[in-house]
Design a protein that fits this description.
The chain is an alpha+beta fold. Among the domains are: 194 residues, no CATH class; 38 residues, no CATH class. The protein has a 5-stranded antiparallel β-sheet with strand order 4-5-6-7-8, with helices on one face. Strands 3-2-9 form a 3-stranded antiparallel β-sheet. The longest helix has 30 residues. The model has no long low-confidence stretch (mean pLDDT 83).
């Protein structure tokens, strides 16, 4: 959507991009180590500029504990918060919706929820979320939500953090996002049909259409207009080729944990990084020691003078020496090794346990144990939720709610729904219904059940302490039961009244039958 408003010049966008990139480069060493030893296949630091396709990225990795535990962390986070092919949230009316209209609005929002999850199931959301959570374990994850095609109406694109830099505005809102892009020149007009190629860029693409072009993509919020400016700039010529005005930013940026004064996140991998690097080095030294045990270094007798500058201590090497012991000694003799490295096994086991504990890889029982009950699984999920702490709340606020908001915006733009309300917590709120959220809800339900059990012996005071009609709706909402399978309060009141009348009629008929059997009332038709 093109709207008139404030617009930065191309040079201003490039200047801000370079400034944001310099601030992000400070994190390169820290993030690079985390990716290299725990998520090496998504490592772009040191590989992107020369093309990372087909390159070996695990040459310095000697232990896979961190790789396996990080994958387990991402999989368990996805199954706990965004379970594949299942509903993980529910749209509910906010506090600004009048109470008497909430039942009607809830019925409409449930239809929107059904439509949204039907679209998500037919899209690449589940695949993209797995990669997104891998990046989140490092600290910062980025996803782009864009309109798709007729088959998949919405396209979810997890973007490695190496390609993205951003800035924060007022109240910590991310109001400027920059992305480095690289694509074939001939694909630019396919990607952006409204692209206006400068003559220099068009000539370069015409001469070499299959050559890759480096681009800068910038999404910047215009606070005066209340919308977003979208720029695509050719990095070589520094000329703008695409400019748009958008109502919403397509980016979802989530941080696992933030430190005051920093805009990039710190994840569990950064906490475990010292142990990961120590384990990797210990394993490397252990393997070298094992190699020396299998193929030791030998000393060879030589009448000349030993030159220490030419000696190489590598497996299978032969070092010429003047003699091997008294009376010239044997002709070939193994070089004694410096100590035994078997104690490393103790260190390795401790480090592996520490890494798994930090990455929450030991919360659920092993798969080889006997079948677990539903109660045990709920308690384990509750334990995982407690271990996540504030990160769970940040995951809801910075990931789940923005994903729902931007997904509904794209659906509204494509005419799939007509949502006049805003997903802002006041008109429409997003209520998590994933297994982790259900584990927290069960704590609240258990508190109510315990209250009822304690007040039952208190007579009339305890009997009327709970509003049972409100309790039914509360329990249904906490358990995520759709409104279309539940009767609302008005319908229940009518059904209760009809049931009371039926019971009263049954009592009257029973009393009449008893009187007839006792002979107090003459049979019907007799005077």
């Amino acid at each position: 959507m093109n709207i008139k408003g404030k617009r930065l010049t191309t040079q201003q966008v490039i200047t801000r991009f370079e400034l944001a990139q310099r601030k992000k480069d400070i994190w390169e060493d820290l993030y690079s180590d985390a990716y290299e030893f725990a998520i090496p296949q998504r490592q772009l630091y040191g590989y992107y500029e020369g093309s990372s396709q087909g390159q070996k990225k695990m040459t310095r990795v000697f232990d896979s504990t961190a790789i396996h535990s990080t994958s387990r962390f991402a999989n368990r986070m996805q199954s706990g918060v965004f379970p594949p092919q299942r509903r993980w949230c529910r749209l509910e009316p906010g506090n600004q919706i009048p109470f008497e209209q909430q039942a009607e609005v809830q019925s409409v929002l449930d239809q929107y929820t059904d439509t949204m999850f039907s679209v998500l199931k037919n899209s690449n959301f589940d695949i993209a979320m797995g990669e997104f959570l891998l990046d989140l374990s490092v600290g910062t994850a980025v996803m782009m939500i864009q309109p798709g095609n007729e088959t998949s109406p919405i396209n979810f694109i997890p973007i490695p953090l190496f390609l993205v830099s951003f800035e924060e505005g007022a109240n910590g809102e991310i109001d400027k996002v920059y992305r480095k892009m690289r694509m074939k020149g001939e694909a630019i007009t396919q990607q952006w049909p409204d692209a206006k190629l400068p003559e220099s860029v068009a000539t370069r693409i015409k001469n070499k259409p299959t050559d890759e072009v480096d681009l800068i993509e910038a999404t910047i919020k215009d606070y005066e207009q209340g919308d977003w400016c979208y720029h695509v700039i050719d990095k070589h010529s520094k000329e703008e080729i695409v400019y748009r005005r958008m109502n919403n930013s397509p980016f979802v940026i989530s941080r696992y944990m933030k430190v005051a004064g920093e805009i990039y996140g710190r994840g569990l991998l950064l906490t475990a990084l010292p142990d990961i690097k120590t384990l990797n080095k210990t394993k490397e030294l252990l393997l070298k020691n094992a190699t020396l045990s299998v193929m030791p270094v030998f000393t060879a007798q030589d009448d000349g003078v030993l030159n220490p500058h030419t000696v190489k201590i590598v497996p299978g090497a032969i070092i010429p020496v003047a003699r091997n012991g008294g009376s010239q000694g044997e002709s070939l003799r193994p070089l004694p090794r410096a100590g035994d490295f078997n104690v490393s096994q103790l260190i390795i086991n401790d480090l592996r346990m520490s890494i798994k504990q930090i990455l929450l890889d030991e919360s659920l029982p092993p798969d080889n144990m006997s079948a677990r009950s539903a109660t045990e699984i709920v308690e384990r999920m509750k334990e995982l939720s407690q271990n996540l702490g504030s990160a769970f709340g940040r995951l809801i606020n910075e990931t789940m709610i923005p994903i729902v908001d931007k997904t509904l915006a794209v659906m509204d733009e494509r005419g799939m729904i007509n949502l006049p309300l805003q997903v802002n917590g006041l008109e429409v709120k997003v209520s998590p219904s994933s297994p982790l959220a259900m584990a927290q809800n069960m704590e609240e339900i258990n508190s109510i059940v315990q209250f009822i059990q304690l007040t039952q012996p208190m007579g009339a005071e305890g009997e009327y302490a709970i509003n049972k009609s409100a309790l039914v709706d509360y329990l249904g909402d906490k358990l995520g039961v759709p409104s279309e399978v539940r009767h609302d309060a008005a319908e229940r009141a009518v059904m209760i009244e009809e049931r009371a009348k039926a019971e009263q009629m049954a009592v009257m008929m029973q009393a009449q039958q008893q009187q007839q059997m006792a002979g107090d009332v003459p049979p019907e038709g007799m005077n």
